[in-house]
Amino acid sequence: MTLIDLANPTKFLSLTARMLPWLAGATAILLLVGFYQAAMAPDDYQQGATVKIMFVHVPNAWLAMFVWGVMTLAALGTLVWRHPLADVAAKAAAPIGAAFTFLALVTGSLWGRPMWGTYWEWDARLTSVLILFLMYLGLMALWRAVDDPSRAARAAAILTLVGALNLPIIKFSVDWWNTLHQPASVMRIGGPSLDRAFLIPLLVMAIGFTLLFVTLHLAAMRNEILRRRVRSLQMMQASQQAA
Amino acid sequence: MSLGPYASFIVTSYALVAAIVVILIIWIAIDYRRQRERLRELEASGVTRRSGRTATEI
Question: What is the CA radius of gyration of chain B?
Fold first, then answer.
């Protein structure tokens, strides 16, 4: 099956129906293994058991950016390639991305209080992620504000591309500015600086949360396709009644 | 397993993540059922897709 085949919503729905149970099962297994490994991970010599917050904070923070990256590709799909499912993918991803960003902010805050002595600091990393969260909310509001899905899709695609400029700012904020937030310890030149005892549970959780996103995203895309089918049938019904 | 003096911060973080993930799953499942129900109602009222397939057919 090629990308062109997936342009057909009916074929996409058929593929989704076959994939969702497997994806959901794989997600549940990976997250259970990840939570077990996180629970069994040793305490950090400086942070103590508080380091366990990392296993949920970091995957959510990665996904906050990853989902916007997916939406950026979908925005290009809408504006450049006019793929029929591109705006469906973008619209379905936004609330899920907003949820992951919210979790990254709140778990970061809960980690920050015992480690930094404060829940919040207006430093570059925290502020740029807060801006990302507000942009997710703005996108969701834009989708709701415009009735015609194709008009909403173009406006949302432009906003998404503008918002993508924030992604490198988030990533490199800890290098460009003097921030309270620690620098990268996994995706860095020279390899991860984390000990394997922490790195392996973190990677398992990251893959588990990524699969969770894929599963939820496909299910939300399926819902959006059905919603558009409802809309077009309602319009047909209205025109039949008017005739 | 001891979570030390900051156990409440750790437990709250995990509980919050679990709660939001469960809310997301329930929201998507309810939305799916709602869309299927609306399609069934439209089909029952005699509206059909241009392809001739039933409204709920994949």
Answer: 21
Please give the ipTM for the structure prediction.
0.89
Q: Show residues of chain B in contact with A222, CB under 8 Å.
A: 32
What tokens does A102 get?
């919210």
What pLDDT was estimated at residue A6? Answer: 66
Sign of the Cα torsion A43, A199, A169, A208 reads negative
- Tell me whether residues B3 and A52 touch, CB distance under 8 A: yes
Between CA A94 and CA A63 the distance in angstroms is: 12
All structural domains of chain A with their residue ranges? 21-179+196-238
Q: Check: CB of residue A125 under 8 Å from CB of residue A49.
A: no
Q: Which residues pair with A190 in a beta bridge?
A: none
Q: Which amino acid is at A173?
A: S
Does the distance separating the beta carbons of B13 and A110 come in below 8 Å?
yes
* Chain-chain contact of A230 with B42 (C-beta, under 8 angstroms): yes
CA separation for the pair A184, A61 (Å, rounded):
12
Q: What is the pLDDT of residues A33-74, one digit of tens each?
A: 999 999 999 998 888 899 999 999 999 999 999 999 999 999
- Cα maximum dimension of chain A: 76
